[in-house]
Amino acid sequence: MTARRKATYAVVLVALAAFGIWAANRVSGLSEDTQATNPLFRWEYLFTRERTPGELWGKTRQHLELTVVPVLIGIVLSSLLSALILRFGWLRSVVFTFAGVLYTIPSIALFAVLVTYYSNETAAITALTSYTLLILTRNFVAGIDAVPRAALDAADGLGMSRFQRLRKVEIPLALPVILTGIRIATVTVVGLVGISAVIQLGGLAIYIFDGFNRDYTTLMVLGTVATILLAVVLDIVLRGIEWLATPWARRRVAP
Amino acid sequence: MTGTAIELRGVTKSFAGADHPAVAPLDLTVNAGEITVLIGPSGCGKTTTLRMINRLVNPTDGVITIDGTDIRQRSLTDLRRAIGYVIQQIGLFPHRTIAQNIATVPKLLGWDRARTNTRVGELAELVGIDASMLKRYPSELSGGQQQRVGVARALAADPPVLLMDEPFGAVDPIVRAHLQDELLALQARVHKTIVLVTHDIDEAILLGDRVVVLNVGGILEQVAAPDDLLASPANGFVASFVGNERGIKRLSLARVERLALDAGPVVDRLASGADIKAAADAAGVDWVGATESGRLAGWVPVEDLRLDAAAPLTGTELRPVVAQLRPSSSLRAALEVILTARSSTALVADEDGTYLGSVTLETIRSGLAS
Questions:
Q1: Is residue A144 less than 8 Å (CB to CB) from chain B?
Q2: Is the domain of B42 the same as that of B110?
Q3: Could you say which of B77, B90, B163 has the minimum Cβ distance to residue A159?
C-alpha cells in the first residue's frame, strides 16, 4: 500500500469518526421524547415505507443523469478546447483563465441566473458542465504535455502523420491523466448536483434539504449516505476503467 | 537490401533569431553501405544535419538527395518510413509491447499480420532480443535491451538508410561497448547506409568507415577514414579534437594485416644449422621458430641446438609459440605481445596456422608512418 493511499484511508476514517461523534452527541443531547420520534435514523423509513424504494431510485436516476450528462458534454467541449490549445499555443492562457472564472462563480448563483433564462434541467446541466471544463481541460492538456519528448520524436521520425501520432501515441500515453481528470470531475459533479435542489432538482440531495426543512434527521442521513455511496461507486467504476485501459502503466518488473 | 548513397549539396540551416547559421553551406557525400559518423563539439550542427536527412528539420537552403532523388519529392511520411531512425533517448512507446514497438513501421505501411509477425521475430533474433521479451513493455527492459529494441524498430521495414543520433549515449560504458560491437556485427550482415552522430571520438573511430568532423556553425573541417583522421588531421582543430593519444588510438584501429611483415627468425624444420644461425642473427634474437609444411610448429632457443648436425631441428622438442598474432589482431594487441614476450618479436600466423611473418616495434612504427 502506498503512503498516499494510507493517508487517504486515514482521512476517510477520521472524517467518519468525527461524524459519528457529532451524531452521537446530537442524539444524546435531545430529550428522550425527541429521540423516540426523531432518531438519527429511522430504519422503517427505508424498509417498511412502501414508496421509499421508488423515490430513492427516482432520485438516484436524476442524480446520475445530472452527473453523467454534464460530464459527457464537458468531455466533448474539453476535447475541443484541448485540441485548440494544442494547435494554437496562445489560446492556453485564454481558455484556462475563462474556465477558471467559470469555476469560481458560486454554483448557487449560477443556478439562479441560468434558471431565469432556461428550463430547470437545462440550467442545471449548463451550470454543472461549466464546472467540469477547468478540471477536464487542464487534465487533458497536462496529459498530452507529459508525453515524453523522445516518444514524440520517435513517432515523427518513424513516419507517423500528425493525426496518427495523436491517436497512436499522445492520447494513449495521456490516458491515465485524462481518465483521472474525468474521475475527479465526476465526483465533483456528484457533490455539486445537490446545490441544484434550489431549482427543484438536486437528485438525492433533495432528501437532505427536505430533512432540514422538516427537521427529520432520517432524511438528512439518507440523502448524505446515498450521495456518498453514489460518489464512491462512480469513483470505483472509473478507477476500474483506468486500470483496464492502462495495462502498461502497472507492469514494472526490475530487469 | 544494401544501402543507398546520400548527397548533401549546399545544405544550410538558419534558425530564426540566431546570428549565425546552425549549419553553414555543407557539401557531403555519404557512401552507400558505409557507416558515416558525424562528430564535433556541441553547436556544430551534427544533430541538425542528421535530422535534415529525414526532414525532421527542413533545410533553409540546399538540396539533399537519397539515391539521386530529392527528398522533397516524397511525402514526409513516405520518406521517413523508408529511413530508420534511432535516438539517444530511445523513445520506445511505453504503452506498446516490445513486439508492437518493433512493428510500428510495418503497421504504418499496412503489412498484414503474418508478415509483420515473421519480421518481428527475425529482428528480435537479429538484435539479440529473446522471444520471451516480445510481450513485455519497455519499462520492463534494461537500458541496453531497450536500445536493441530501438535498433530493431528502426530496421523493421528494411530501410536502406539508418539515422542514429547518439544511439549509445544513454547506456553505461560496458553496455555501450557491447552495443557498439553488436552494431558492427549487424552492419556486416545488413550493409545499410548509416549516418551516426556522436560526440565521442573513440566511438567515431571505432564505428566509422568515414568520420566527418564538424566545427561550430556546421563548418566541415575534415572527412576521412578513421585511420587517416588520426594519422593526418587536416588542421589544428581536428588534431585537438581527435586528442593527444592519436598514436595509441591508431594502434587500436589498425590491424596486423596492414603491416609489411618481416621474414622473422623462422625456418623450415629441415633447415641446416647455418640457415638457423643466419635467421636468428638476422632477426637479432637468440631463438628460432620452426615451420612444418608452412605451418608454425614451435620455437626453440638456439643454444639448445647442435648446429653442426645435418638438420638440427628434426630431433628437438619444440616449445609452443605464445607470442603469436593473427592478421586480424589489432596493433595494440601486437604491442602488448611484443612488450611481454621473451624478445621484442612476435610471430604472425593465419587461422590455419600458416606462418606469415614477424612483427617488431620497428614494423609497427613504420606501418603507422606509411
A1: no
A2: yes
A3: B77
Residue A167 lies in a domain: yes
Whether A242 has its CB under 8 Å from any CB of chain B: the answer is no
Question: Considering B253, B282, B303, which residue would you say is the last residue of a domain?
Answer: B253
Same-domain pairing of B241 and B268: no
How many domains is chain A partitioned into structurally? 2
Which chain B residues are closer than 8 Å to A154 by Cβ?
85, 87, 90-93, 150, 153
**ipTM exceeds 0.85:** no
The chain B residue lying nearest A169, using CA atoms, is: B93
A45 falls within a domain: no
Residue B358: which domain range? 257-369
What chain A residue is nearest to B145 in terms of C-alpha separation?
A255
Is A163 near chain B, with CB under 8 Å?
A: no
Asked if A105 and A211 sit in the same domain, the reply is yes
Query: B186 to chain A nearest CA, in Å?
Result: 20
Nearest chain B residue to A252 by CA: give it.
Answer: B140
The sign of the CA dihedral A82, A86, A90, A93 is positive
* Contact (CB<8Å) B142/A255: yes
Share of chain B above pLDDT 90, in %: 55
Of all residues in chain B, the one with the smallest CA distance to A156 is B56
Stronger pLDDT, A151 or A254, i.e. the higher one: A151
Contacts of residue A160 in chain B, CB cutoff 8 Å? 77, 108
Assign A1 a pLDDT band (cuts: 50, 70, 90): low
The boundaries of the domain holding residue A11 are 1-40
| B72-78 average pLDDT score | 93
What pLDDT score does B231 carry?
Answer: 87
Domain end: B200, B223, B253, which one? B253
Based on the fold, state whether residues A15 and A59 are members of the same structural domain. Answer: no
- B3 or A67, higher pLDDT: A67
Q: Do B87 and A160 touch (CB under 8 A)?
A: no
Q: What is the count of structural domains for chain B?
A: 2
Q: Which of A159, A169, A249 sits opposite B93 (nearest CB)?
A: A169
**A149 and A234 assigned to the same domain:** yes
Instruction: Using a CB–CB cutoff of 8 Å, tell me whether A244 touches chain B.
Output: no
Residues A79 and A183 reside in one and the same domain: yes
pTM, entire model: 0.77
- pLDDT given for residue B138 in this prediction: 93
Same domain membership, residue B268 and residue B245: no
- Please say if the pLDDT value at position B370 is more than 70: no
CA torsion, ordered B301, B306, B311, B314, to nearest 10 deg:
-60
Q: What is the pLDDT of residue B165?
A: 95
Distance from CA of B210 to the nearest CA of A (A): 24
Question: Do A27 and A140 have their domain in common?
Answer: no
Q: Hey, of B53, B87, B95, which one would you mutate to test binding to chain A, going by the most A CBs within 10 A of its CB?
A: B95
Please compute the mean of the pLDDT values over residues A11-34 and round it to a whole number: 76
